[in-house]
Amino acid sequence: xGTAELNNTKKELxxxxxxxxxxxxxxxxxxxxxxxxxxxxDWWDExxxxxxxxxxxxxxxxxxxxxxxxxxxxxxxxxx
Length: 80
Hints:
It contains five helices and no strands. By secondary structure, the chain is mainly α. It is elongated, with a radius of gyration of 20 Å. The chain starts with a helix and ends with a helix.
């Protein structure tokens, strides 16, 4: 990417970021920024308590063998 194109892309991104209203997207962009600066935190610390509970529940289901393969999932979905 040439210098002029890079500068134009940066301007477009700044303009786009200024219009964002989605908190989660702004948070994601901030995480990318912090990561590029070597200041990122553990992603787990950025999750909501609800997200953590859901992830841990999924891990527990997997460990207990309470999972479906993709064929079982899609067949169940198609057949109600």
